[in-house]
Amino acid sequence: MKKISWVYFALLFVLGLFAGTRIPQRKGVMHEPQKGINLHILQTQSRMDGILDLVEQNYVDTFSFFNLENAAITGMLEQLDPHSVYIPASEASMANEDINGDFDGIGVQFRVLHDTVLVIMPVAGGPSEKVGIKQGDRIISAEDIRGDGSVVILSGKNLSTEKIMRTLRGPRGSVVRLGILPYNSTHIRYVDVVRNVIPTYSVDASFMLDESVAKDIGYIKLSKFNQTTSREVAVALSSLQNQGMRGLVLDLRGNGGGLLSECLVLCDMFLPRNSLVLYTHGLRRPKTEIRASGGGKYQKLPLVVLIDQFSASASEIFAGAMQDNDRAVIVGRRTFGKGLVQEQMNLRDGSILRLTVAKYYTPSGRSIQKPYRGAKYEEDLLERYTDGELFGTDTTSHTDTVKYYTIKGRVVYGGGGIEPDINVPYTIDTLYTCVNRLSNSGVLYDYAFSYVAQNRSMLGTEYPTLDKFKKNFVVTDVMVQKIVAQGKQKGIKSDSACLQYHSHRLKTLVKATIARDLYDDKGFYSIYSTIDDDILKAINNF
């Protein structure tokens, strides 16, 4: 009853706040409980209301009552589960962008490099490209010329991604004046950019894997589930099929989830009619089953799904449905373990309550959700690293002991994400350390970006297409030596044994990173796939 009361209290308290119905409690007055409302709820509500009144009437300093209410709501929801959250009205628009599949802004991919906003690539046909902003340009300042006219300086040590996004995004049709410093120039030019709708895509890349890796196997990298996901995947599948695809690697690594509805459409593409996809159940939500319609065009296409510890929510639902129906081979590492159903409740002032109302279960009956009561929920991924699970050296069990069974009778376990059919641990190799350090420090990225900026004209002439770049571009020993030298300036040591042993892998990684700057994500993934351990393992298990 206590748990039930808290949930009702949360809803009543939040709705009461935004309806402006704080109920003052007068001394000596007994309130009759309203019909259908638990007396304990009213008593709890009175206690909260009374504390707010006492603070308002007696606190020593000035304070924001609005901020205090927000903190109270946030603290209350933290007592429920890690994913029930309150989103203030000021953050609601940004919170919905990944789900909606678009946002309003200037249309650039950027990165903070050396305390400066660096344009990685303008969105094709977007507002920035139309005014001549190019890859390698640095955005120095931004002025909302329809606002208060204040100039925001976009450089310095305290520059955050959040500040940049808040500055560059704005209402459709509004104008922002940008101070642009072109690459290798000291002259700032100013351009007026009219903000407009910017699409956010969920398919990062799709292509046929290199024949040196596999023949007739397609690859799709899916980064999220938003309102355009099923359409994007359908287009990608059709294109790959026209190129002779006879099997598919669907990459859900790093995919944190999104819209359940789009995940279900994706499941429908691959599962036979009446296959159970999932079911949900909660204290106040009856058990609800969702089954495939049988109208999918790819029910017999051989399928491998890649997952890792950052695959969550909708990604886990898809992987679990494919696994329990014996429809695909699941390859990689155990997923995050988020199997809670959130319903979004829009409040009157534009703020949002996302409240957990049920749990997801795979067709075999497994709960995807990992434990969060009394556990170090936020430290789970770190513990997987420190205890050796990600490297295949951990001998402890990370799932419950209850056995569940797939359609064909294979044993699977629940209680904390989706365990892959084929686990691919990270490589433990001391000789590979130097490559990791060069990559993780950003040295490879910085070198690739500078190389492309300095040689863009030559690269565009000699390698007008990605195919020509893949076949003919060579990363030389001299280029590697320059990267190593830049690494030393950052304190990264690289021994000769490491560089010699992993020369091919390092050069392939450099080539892929240069290709990303030239041809976007497809350039990177199509080259990196030739050395991707998960993909190589997947190919061997079709």
Q: How much of the residues is beta strand, in percent?
A: 15-25%
Structural class: alpha+beta
The level-1 CATH class of the largest domain: Alpha Beta
Number of helical segments with 4 or more residues: 17
Structural commentary:
By secondary structure, this protein is of the alpha+beta class. It has 4 domains: 2-80, no CATH class; 102-199, PDZ domain (Pdz3 Domain); 203-423, 2-enoyl-CoA Hydratase, Chain A, domain 1 (Alpha-Beta Complex), CATH 3.90.226; 430-539, no CATH class. The protein is 38% helix and 20% strand. The chain has 17 helices and 21 strands. The strands form 5 sheets. Strands 3, 4, 5, 6, 7 and 8 form a 6-stranded antiparallel sheet that branches. It has a 6-stranded mixed sheet with strand order 10-11-12-15-16-21, sandwiched between helices. Strands 1, 13, 14, 17 and 18 form a 5-stranded antiparallel sheet that branches. The protein is globular and about 70 Å long. The model is unreliable at 1-42 (pLDDT under 50).
